[in-house]
Amino acid sequence: MDNKPEKASGVGVLLRVANAAPYGIIAGACGMIVFFSTLGLIVAYAVLSGIEGEMMRTVSFFENWWQVLLFVVDVIAAVAAIASLAMFIVKKVYEGRTESSEEVDNGEKA
């Protein structure tokens, strides 16, 4: 029954961070950004392809600065959506485990 503070393990720190942020909302917002930026890239490609087709030229995603910026935003938002979704799942699993362990502890003490 020593009252020594526990060392912070990597998992413990990760779980404390997981409880601090609303990862479900972050994942949803990033998912919407990914959807609309991908849609914007596809529409821009289709419009520019039609214009360039009339001029007998080719088109690419990386011709204009705004297309490159839209692509970079798309990739960053996709990575953030996947990471926040993973943290949301870790948070839910951890909460489920702590609730079940509290029920067992309460049952043994009573």
Which runs of at least 5 residues are low in confidence (pLDDT < 50)? none
Number of domains: 1
**Tally of individual helices:** 3
**Total strand segments:** 0
Distance separating the two termini: 21 Å
> What gross morphology would you assign?
rod-shaped
Structure report:
The chain has one domain. 78% of the residues lie in helices and 0% in strands. The protein is built from three helices and no strands. α2 (23-54) runs antiparallel to α3. The longest helix has 45 residues, at 65-109.
Task: Describe the SSE topology.
Blueprint: H1 10-18, H2 23-54, H3 65-109
Quick overview:
Helices cover 78% and strands 0% of the residues. With 110 residues, the chain is mainly alpha-helical.
Give short descriptive properties of this protein.
mainly alpha, 110 residues, rod-shaped, 0% strand, 78% helix
